[in-house]
Amino acid sequence: MGVVVLLAVIVVVLVWVGLVMALAPRQGRHNLQQHFPATVEPGGPFVQSNVLFVPDESHTPCIVKATPAGLYLASPEKAFARRIWGVTGPSYLTKPVLIPWSALEYGLAKFPLWGWVRFDIASAKVTFFVRRKVAAELLQTAGQPLPWVSPAG
Question: Shortest CA distance to 34 belongs to which of 117, 105, 121?
Fold first, then answer.
């Protein structure tokens, strides 16, 4: 009986690991890191923000900076220090990314994420959300237009 239970547990764990590995490329964070790895860190100051990635919709703690080249995102080192394996919690960017402005489309998010800005990267099939206040600060720093302000005023 004990051997059967052990075999069942092993099969369940192997199926779970297989599913995680098979679905990883469909996650926004994974795709972002594959398509836009940052080669250098653009020096601070950084803005601390939680970023919501689709489809998992879990918050990812990030340090963010808008540069003329694009939007830099990374999970802070202290976030990794608090990470506990096997416990559900926030997700992380394991590698920093720099997304060029030419690859980003953004606009106000719709219900239920009012108060957030939606960023889409069609080439990498990635969508993520940043709080409107943080997005406004980042976009203004980089000289990018705010989607909720008309050009006339």
Answer: 121
Residue recorded with tokens 């506990």: 84
pTM: 0.76
Distance from chain centroid for Cα 115: 17
Model confidence pLDDT, tens digit, residues 77-136? 776 555 555 454 567 888 999 999 999 999 999 988 889 999 999 998 899 999 999 999
